[in-house]
Design a protein that fits this description.
Layout: H1 3-11, H2 14-18, H3 23-35, H4 38-50, H5 58-73, E1 81-87, H6 105-113, E2 115-117, E3 120-121, H7 126-135, H8 164-170, E4 174-180, E5 199-203, E6 214-216, E7 238-240, E8 243-244, E9 247-248, H9 256-270, E10 277-282, H10 294-299, H11 312-338, E11 345-351, H12 375-378, E12 379-380, E13 382-386, E14 398-399, E15 403-404, H13 408-415, H14 433-438, E16 446-451, E17 460-466, E18 469-475, H15 479-483, E19 500-504, H16 519-525, H17 527-545, H18 593-596, H19 610-623
Helix pairs in contact: 3-5, 3-11, 9-11, 16-17
Length: about 625
């Protein structure tokens, strides 16, 4: 054990750990770790080496001491700070408390001390979830219900919609987004600083290389498909995508999460604790490309196997990427503690969608993953910890209630005591705050999973509680995967209309038995099944009727936004668009875009049979109106 770990182990021996009131020792260690981040890595290796024993590791002692001191020092009148962590493509089993081979001690600790949400639902891809998170509306109200925005598209979060930072800024909060945006990038009006954030550091698009910070578009090759999207030889349509408040920020050596953590810590350490802060920390991991620092790859030696045997070494890298979030979270928590803000900070953690199986993620025991409406694509790990939830009522080990990402904004506003009665546009989400802290059942009894347009085969789903059970109806649940928004045409099979699916999630949470083929039989033995099916068909049609028109007008999407001639991904009207040169391996040149562009066949209607496919899909959906509505 290194000398620094010996020091920390002695400092947080069982005797000292029990003396949580000794703030001097706790703060000295926190300061030491903040000033020397390399020592944190040593703590993690030590933790992994000893976690199979009954010994309390140095890291566990630090976390326990900070938690105890934070609870004891909480005051009623302190500003209510908010720290959210939104991971990217993190599967259900890509976290320590669901897969013990993952090294996430900080996440596991705070999840254990807080409230774990067993049924937290999001959308199945990045942009739709983020649009719902920031507005409190269903994605069917934002026009972003079909698919994630890819670089080059015009789609964006509607400019007339108020956002989470808008509401909090009006209430006197300082607002910051550190990490991924992915809600529009064509003009400055679409970017974070114009959508309510005082401070933004991160990437505008959906993904980038985690070291070089650049991204090529449509790079899937006919030979290698998904695996080649971010390969080094795929740079024909390329731009650099890391910025600070609109200005390109150059760093092509350090890992993305580490840079984001540096910025978050610096922001907290400079912040006035008397001013409440909304800090949205949104790292772009474990989203592909699957890369991590060598130290974190080594930390994850012995990790569990990938789903279906996909790229075993990807799994170890995914583990390393998630560990980077854990370390970042520890550093930010230490900064909040040093600023005497942690005792009045609410922490919320969740993933934007399920993990991408082909990239090494694991959503077991749930079915499928990112891009699918099966549980593996929309049922994600989530927890809440901190100020306001440390009560004997709220501190239950798990909440089984249904929660949807649209509930986050109204619930956070409820925590902050921000009056929403004057809001003209109502939220689709619920404010669960009072019920959470009092340990009461939550208000949600349904989850409108989606109601996509014909462009992606009416990709739709609905979850509803009925007859004391939870039911799920889907139509074409995997069409987005087969539409191949990020895959070469030759790597996928021809998409076939999937039709309807009905599952009883209370009895079949892993969606193994589709009840649709047995409806006639159930009609004679269990009338509830037919009633539920009719109910969910009707609810889905109602959701579709209330939806705004999808912004996805064409497949492949219209490419109207390009990196600057100087290699930067920036809004067209940015003052830096034609003045700042960005470091990219192969600068963008207009003549080589569409000749190499590989997204010409990303839709399910890729050939002469397109009209037939669309007609089949619309006929099936229209046919749903023929079923009577039940009275349940």
């Amino acid at each position: 054990m290194s000398s620094s770990l010996v020091f920390l182990s002695l400092l947080f021996s069982p005797v000292l750990a029990s003396l949580s009131s000794d703030r001097f020792h706790i703060r000295s260690t926190a300061e030491e770790l903040l000033n020397h981040p390399s020592k944190i890595i040593q703590l993690y290796f030590d933790h992994k080496a000893h976690r199979s024993t009954q010994e309390t590791t140095a890291l566990e002692s630090i976390l326990e001491s900070i938690h105890t001191d934070t609870v004891l020092s909480a005051t009623k009148n302190a500003p209510k700070h908010i720290f959210t962590v939104l991971s990217d493509d993190q599967g259900w089993s890509d976290i320590g408390y669901n897969d013990e081979t993952f090294v996430t001690p900080t996440i596991d600790f705070f999840a254990d001390k807080g409230i774990k949400f067993d049924n937290f639902y999001v959308q199945c891809t990045c942009t739709p979830t983020r649009s719902s998170l920031l507005t409190g509306r269903y994605t069917t109200k934002t026009g972003l219900q079909d698919a994630p925005i890819i670089p080059g598209e015009r789609r964006n979060l509607p400019l007339d919609m108020k956002t989470m930072p808008d509401y909090f800024k009006e209430a006197g909060y300082s607002t910051a987004l550190i990490g991924k945006w992915h809600l529009g990038h064509e003009f400055l009006s679409m970017t974070p600083n114009a959508r309510g954030y005082d401070y933004f550091f991160g990437n505008l698009g959906g993904a980038y290389d985690h070291f070089s910070k650049d991204i090529g578009v449509g790079c899937g090759s006919e030979e290698n498909g998904f695996q080649d999207i971010f390969s080094d030889n795929c740079r024909f349509f390329n731009g650099y995508d890391l910025q600070e408040n609109g200005m390109p920020y150059f760093d092509q050596q350090n890992f993305s999460t580490d840079i984001l953590a540096d910025k978050a810590v610096a922001l907290v350490m400079k912040h006035n604790p008397e001013t409440p802060i909304l800090l949205n920390f949104q790292p772009n991991v474990p989203h592909a490309p699957v890369k991590c620092p060598e130290s974190l790859y080594s930390l994850c030696d012995g990790v569990s196997e990938s789903t279906h045997g996909y790229q075993p070494y990807f799994r170890q890298k995914v583990c390393g990427m998630v560990a980077s979030i854990d370390i970042a979270m520890l550093r930010i928590v230490l900064a909040l503690y040093m600023k005497d803000m942690l005792s009045s900070t609410l922490i919320l953690y969740f993933s934007d969608n399920g993990g991408l199986i082909q990239a090494g993620s694991n959503n077991k025991p749930y079915r499928e993953g990112k891009g699918s409406m099966y549980e593996g694509g929309i049922h994600v790990p989530a927890f809440m910890y901190g100020h306001g939830v440390n009560s004997p009522y709220s501190l239950v080990s798990h909440r089984k209630d249904l929660i949807h990402v649209s509930d986050v904004l109204p619930t956070l506003l409820g925590y902050a005591n921000i009056d929403t009665r004057h809001i003209v546009t109502h939220f689709d989400g619920f404010n669960h705050w009072d019920n959470l802290v009092l340990g009461k059942p939550l208000k949600r009894n349904r989850v409108p999973v989606n109601a996509a347009s014909i462009k992606v085969g009416f990709f739709s789903g609905y979850i509803q509680k009925a007859f004391n059970q939870t039911w799920k109806y889907m139509f074409n649940p995997n069409v987005l995967i087969w539409a191949g928004l990020h895959q070469a045409a030759s790597t996928r099979a021809r998409y076939k209309i999937e039709g309807e699916f009905l599952y009883n999630l209370s009895e079949d949470p892993y969606e193994e038995t589709n009840l649709i083929p047995y409806v006639d039989r159930f009609n004679h033995t269990d009338l509830h099944v037919m009633e539920v099916l009719n109910l969910l068909r009707f609810e889905l049609l109602a959701l579709r009727a209330s939806s705004v028109t999808s912004q996805l007008t064409n497949i492949p999407p219209d490419m109207v936004v390009f990196p600057s001639n100087l290699g930067c991904w920036l809004p067209k009207d940015s003052p830096y668009y034609n003045t700042v040169k960005c470091p990219v391996p192969t600068p963008f040149t207009p003549e080589n875009v569409f000749s190499s562009y590989n997204l010409t066949a990303i839709a399910m209607n890729v050939d002469s049979e397109a009209d037939t496919v669309e007609l089949e899909a619309s006929t099936i959906v229209d046919g749903l109106t023929e079923h009577p509505v039940c009275d349940a």
